[in-house]
Every structure is written in structure tokens, then in C-alpha cells.
Amino acid sequence: MGLLKDSRRRTTSVQWPAEVDAHLDLLVRLAADEGIPMSRAQMLSALVANASLSGPTVAKMVRRYLGQLKVGDLARGAPRSEDLPQVRHRGRQRTHPTQTN
Questions:
Q1: Region annotation Disordered: residue ranges (predicted)?
Q2: Is the dihedral of CA 14, 9, 59, 29 positive or negative?
């Protein structure tokens, strides 16, 4: 058996708040700072693969996202980005986050 990271792929399209997207970038940079270079897709895969399968735990996480987190909450307490390595993402580079209402 091979590693999960090397198994068959599925392409998805995700739309989410720009602040969540920036938080994903921060997580990738934190991993790079620990000597683990990875892509955004690999980080998302790692987060999902390691998520709790406890119904109450998942419900608590979803309730927090849907009803408690406010704009700016993710940035509060985050490490200063200038203290972390820059990470170059493969693929087309966006010049600014997509805005949807």
C-alpha cells in the first residue's frame, strides 16, 4: 500500500472568504518554517485527513465557524507574516482575492 498523499486525485473548486484563504497561506508558511514545504492542496488534505470524526466535535467546529467567528478573528493572535518564509505557489498567481457578495 502506498501513501495516502500519492493516491488517486480528485479536483475540487472551493469558494470561501478571503480571510480564510489568507489563513491557509499562513498555515503553509508555518509548515515551511518548520522545514516542511507543502502546497496549499497538501495542507487542505492534511487538515481534512486529520479532522475529528466525532459528531459533537465537528458540530462545535461548524457552529464556531457559522455563528461565532467574526471578520478579523483569524488574524488576531497569528504570528507576524514577516517572521515566516515566503512560499511560492504553483499555478496561476492571483493579484488580489476574489470578492463575492
A1: 75-101
A2: negative
Its pTM stands at: 0.79
Domain ranges of the chain: 16-75
Q: How far apart are the first and last CA of the chain?
A: 45
Q: For 56-78, give one letter per residue: b (16+ CB within 10 A) or e.
A: eeeeeeeeeeeeeeeeeebeeee
What one-letter code names the amino acid at 11? Answer: T
- For the segment 51-98, what is each residue's pLDDT rounded down to a tens digit? 999 999 999 999 999 999 999 998 887 777 777 777 776 655 555 555
